[in-house]
Amino acid sequence: MKRNVISILTCLWLTACSQSGWVRQDTASTLYLPPVGTLVELKQPLTVRPGRARVFLQGGRFGQAINQFEPNCNFVIRTLSEQPQVIKPDTFLVVRVQRVTEEVVQLTRPIRVAGLGALALDSSGGYSMVTRGVHLWFGSDTQPEVMRMTCRGGFDDPWRAKLPSIDQIRAVLGAYASLTLP
Question: Helix (H, G, I), strand (E, B), or coil: what is residue 9?
């Protein structure tokens, strides 16, 4: 009973801190997500390869291969094409923010015996690695084909995986794009 009371008080304290602005104003915090109304300004064109729907940025560089254990972002378009598609420089308004958790799929462990969201046990009795991220959904009149930007922290054990901070997202975007909070 005493443990439950302490847990509840801790949750209330953390909620009060985040609502009061203590956490929300720290762009280095993984608890502060870019809010609705954020502007993402793409400063350089990004080419989406044929048969693909996204392009990746990491460490301020554009590329097809990324290190999944480090923070990264990708721009996502709505439609696949057999031709290259270009996301032109533009300013995109964030109209919705959504947290995501993704598990690593490993073919060496084909059978899953139990699962509870991000804390799924695999057949070896260990935990699957996850990455936590955020979808920044765009509303664009000039390029409606550009659906969103997704940014993730690196893959890690479920209890250590973190969302990327705004500062980390800005470092990932580098000179390709900027993030302006409302």
Answer: helix
